[in-house]
C-alpha cells in the first residue's frame, strides 16, 4: 500500500511527527511520567456534561497531546463536525445525511435536510410515542380481549435490538415494574420460542422494530410472533387481534401495512438515522414504554448536552475528541488491536455489546472515502464485561499478557441500590485496577515481600498499561444519553482522522446474500454449485436433518 495514497499520512504533517514522537517516547513509563509531574492527574482530566474523565494514566506527554490535536485539525475535523450537524450528506456511499444529533435537538432548533427542517418531524414522532406509551403504561391501551398489556416484546436485530436492550437494562431501575420486557433478535427459533414460552397472548404487545421492514431475521420472527398470537393453544384466533397486539417502528409504511399492522400504530423515523445510531429514535419505543416519556426526554437531553459539548468545546477540552485521539494513538502507533470498555455498574451489562456494533460496524472499514485502501489500521476490536466479574476471568491477560489493551473504566459515585458496603467495594476495584495497570509491581517490590527468587518473574506486573477512568455521579437516563453520545462522537472523530465512511455497512451484505441463496438449497435436492467445502456441508445437513432423533 502506497503511503502517498493515504490522505491521513500525506496531507497531515502531524502523522509523520507523531511517528517520530512515538519512537522517542514509546519506552517512557507511567511511573516516570507521574513521578516527574505531580500535577499530571489535574492537568490530564476534564469535567463536563456530568462526566469526569481522568485520562492521566495514558502513555502521553504534552507534546503527544499537541500533535494529536494537530492531527485532528489537519484532518479537517472542525469542518466535518459542522458538516454532520448541518445535515450534509456525509455518508457518501449511501448518499445520506447523518443526523442522529437531530433526534435529540430541542424544539425550536432547526436542522435542514433537502430543504426541510427535520426537528418538528422528530418532535411529532416523540409526541406520538409519548401518547402511546402513556396509554400502554396506564393500562388504557387494551389487548383484543380487553385486558391491559403486561409484557412488551421488541422484535428487531442489530441496531433495532442492541440499543433497545442495552437501554432497557441500563435504565431498568427507572422502569415501570408492572410491565415486563423481552427482546427477540436471533432468527434461531429458540429465541422467539423462549421469549413467548410463558406469555399470555391476551396481555402481550409486540413492537416490530425494523427500519427497512424487510430484514430476514426480524420478519421471520415477526411472522412467528403473529402465528403464536393467533394460533397457539391459547391464541386469539382472530386476524383483527393483530391491531391491538402489534405496532411497528419503521421507515417503510408499505411493508408495515402489508404485514397487517395498522399504519396508525406505526412510529416512523428517517433514512438519515443509521441503525446503530437509532436508540434515541422511535426504535427506542421499548425504552420509553419502560421508563416513561418524561425520563426518555431526560435521556435525550443527556445526548444533546454531549452533542453541544462536542460541537462547541475547543478540541483541547473536548471529551470525545480527546478520547478518540487517544484511541488512535494506541491503535495506529502502539499497534493495539483491541480496546476494552469495563463498566463497573451492573445496569450497564449490555453496554459493551452495544458499543461493539457502534464502533466496529462504523469503523471496520478497509478503504478511504476516496475508495483507496487505508494504509493504517482502522477500527479496533471493542469488547468488555461489567466489573468486577471480568477481573475473575480475562483481566489476567490485560495485566500480564503480551498485548497492550487500552481500557475505559466507567464508574459512578452513587449506587442505585445502596446495600451495605457493596458500592465502596465495587468502586475501590475500579481505582485499584487502573492503578495496578498503570504502575504494576516491580521485581524489587515482589522480592521485598519475601517471594522466592524463581517465583519473582511470575509475580511481577510490568504496569505501563493505559486506561481512562470515566466517573459520573449516578446512572440516570440523562447520563446514559451522555455516555452513548460520547462514544458516538468518538467513533465519528476516529472516522474523520482515518478518512473513512463510518456510516455505511457494506461488509454485512455478502453473507446475507449467500444465506438467502442457500436457504432453498437446504430445503431442496437441487445440484449444488458452491465450493467443495460448502457443498459437503450442505449435503451433510440435508442428510442429517431428516434422520430421526435418537431415543
Ligand atoms: C446498523 C445496521 C444494522 C441494522 C439491522 C436491522 O447500523 O444497519 O445493524 O440495524 O440490520 O435493520 P432493520 O432495522 O432495517 O431491520
Q: How would you summarize what this structure contains?
A:
The chain has 23 helices and 13 strands.
Describe this protein's structure.
By secondary structure, the protein is α/β, with parallel strands linked by helices. The chain has 23 helices and 13 strands. The strands form 3 sheets. A 6-stranded mixed sheet has the order 1-2-13-12-10-11, with helices on both faces. It has a 5-stranded parallel sheet with strand order 6-5-7-8-9, sandwiched between helices. Strands 3-4 form a two-stranded antiparallel ribbon. Helix 5 (62-74) packs across helix 15 (319-334), helix 8 packs parallel to helix 13 and helix 15 crosses helix 21 (477-498). The radius of gyration is 25 Å and the shape is globular. Glucose-6-phosphate (G6Q) binds next to loops. Residues 157-160, 210-212, 215, 218, 274-276, 361, 505 line the site of glucose-6-phosphate.
Helices and strands in order, then pairings?
Blueprint: H1 7-11, H2 13-25, H3 30-35, H4 40-43, E1 45-48, E2 51-54, H5 62-74, H6 77-85, E3 112-113, E4 116-117, H7 119-138, E5 151-155, H8 162-170, E6 180-184, H9 189-196, E7 204-209, H10 216-231, H11 242-245, E8 246-250, H12 253-259, E9 266-268, H13 285-291, H14 293-312, H15 319-334, E10 338-343, H16 351-363, E11 381-383, H17 395-400, E12 407-412, H18 422-439, H19 443-448, H20 456-459, E13 467-472, H21 477-498, H22 509-523, H23 532-545
Parallel strand pairs: 5-6, 5-7, 7-8, 8-9, 10-11, 10-12, 12-13
Antiparallel strand pairs: 1-2, 2-13, 3-4
Helix pairs in contact: 2-5, 5-15, 7-13, 8-13, 8-16, 13-14, 14-21, 15-21, 16-21, 22-23
The protein binds glucose-6-phosphate.
Amino acid at each position: 500500500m502506497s503511503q502517498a495514497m493515504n490522505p491521513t499520512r500525506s496531507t497531515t504533517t502531524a502523522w509523520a511527527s507523531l511517528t517520530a514522537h512515538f519512537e522517542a517516547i514509546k519506552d517512557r513509563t507511567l511511573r516516570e511520567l507521574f513521578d516527574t509531574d505531580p500535577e499530571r492527574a489535574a492537568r490530564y482530566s476534564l469535567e463536563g456534561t456530568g462526566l469526569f474523565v481522568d485520562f492521566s494514566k495514558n502513555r502521553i506527554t504534552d507534546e503527544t497531546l499537541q500533535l494529536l490535536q494537530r492531527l485532528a485539525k489537519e484532518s479537517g475535523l472542525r469542518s466535518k463536525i459542522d458538516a454532520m450537524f448541518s445535515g450534509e450528506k456525509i455518508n457518501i456511499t449511501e448518499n445520506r445525511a447523518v443526523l442522529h444529533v437531530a433526534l435529540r435537538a430541542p424544539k425550536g432548533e432547526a436542522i435542514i435536510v433537502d430543504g426541510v427542517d427535520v426537528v418538528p418531524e422528530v418532535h411529532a414522532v416523540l409526541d406520538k410515542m409519548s401518547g402511546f406509551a402513556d396509554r400502554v403504561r396506564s393500562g388504557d391501551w387494551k389487548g383484543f380481549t380487553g385486558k391491559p398489556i403486561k409484557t412488551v416484546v421488541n422484535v428487531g436485530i442489530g441496531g433495532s435490538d442492541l440499543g433497545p436492550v442495552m437501554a432497557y437494562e441500563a435504565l431498568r431501575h427507572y422502569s415501570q415494574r408492572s410491565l415486563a420486557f423481552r427482546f427477540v433478535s436471533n432468527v434461531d427459533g429458540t429465541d422467539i420460542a423462549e421469549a413467548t414460552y410463558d406469555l399470555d397472548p391476551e396481555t402481550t404487545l409486540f413492537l416490530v422494530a425494523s427500519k427497512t421492514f424487510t430484514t430476514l431475521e426480524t420478519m421471520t420472527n415477526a411472522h412467528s410472533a403473529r402465528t403464536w398470537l393467533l394460533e397457539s393453544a391459547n391464541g386469539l384466533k382472530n386476524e383483527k387481534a393483530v391491531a391491538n397486539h402489534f405496532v411497528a417502528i419503521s421507515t417503510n409504511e408499505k411493508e408495515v401495512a402489508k404485514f397487517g399492522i395498522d399504519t396508525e400504530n406505526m412510529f416512523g423515523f428517517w433514512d438519515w438515522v443509521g441503525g446503530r445510531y437509532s436508540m434515541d429514535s422511535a426504535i427506542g419505543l421499548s425504552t420509553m414504554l419502560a421508563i416513561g416519556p418524561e425520563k426518555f426526554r431526560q435521556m435525550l437531553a443527556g445526548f444533546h448536552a454531549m452533542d453541544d459539548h462536542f460541537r462547541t468545546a475547543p478540541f483541547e477540552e473536548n471529551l470525545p475528541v480527546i478520547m478518540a485521539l487517544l484511541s488512535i494513538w494506541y491503535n495506529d502507533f502502539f499497534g493495539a488491536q483491541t480496546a476494552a470498555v469495563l463498566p463497573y455498574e451492573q445496569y450497564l451489562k449490555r453496554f459493551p455489546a452495544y458499543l461493539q456494533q457502534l464502533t466496529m460496524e462504523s469503523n471496520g472499514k478497509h478503504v478511504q472515502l476516496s475508495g483507496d485502501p487505508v494504509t493504517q489500521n482502522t477500527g479496533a476490536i471493542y469488547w468488555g464485561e461489567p466489573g468486577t466479574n471480568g477481573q475473575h476471568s480475562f483481566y489476567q491477560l490485560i495485566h500480564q499478557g503480551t498485548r497492550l489493551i487500552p481500557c475505559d473504566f466507567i464508574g459512578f459515585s452513587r449506587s442505585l441500590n445502596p446495600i451495605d458496603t457493596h458500592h465502596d467495594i465495587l468502586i475501590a476495584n475500579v481505582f485499584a485496577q487502573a492503578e495496578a495497570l498503570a504502575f504494576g509491581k516491580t521485581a524489587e517490590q515482589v522480592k521485598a515481600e519475601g517471594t522466592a527468587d524463581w517465583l519473582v518473574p511470575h509475580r511481577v506486573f510490568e504496569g505501563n498499561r493505559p486506561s481512562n477512568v470515566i466517573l459520573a455521579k449516578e446512572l440516570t437516563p440523562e447520563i446514559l444519553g451522555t455516555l452513548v453520545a460520547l462514544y458516538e462522537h468518538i467513533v465519528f472523530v476516529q472516522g474523520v482522522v482515518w478518512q473513512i465512511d463510518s456510516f455505511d455497512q457494506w461488509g454485512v451484505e455478502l453473507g446475507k446474500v449467500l444465506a438467502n441463496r442457500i436457504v432453498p438449497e437446504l430445503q431442496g435436492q437441487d445440484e449444488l454449485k458452491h465450493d467443495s467445502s460448502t457443498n459437503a456441508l450442505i449435503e451433510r445437513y440435508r442428510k442429517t436433518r431428516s434422520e430421526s432423533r435418537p431415543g
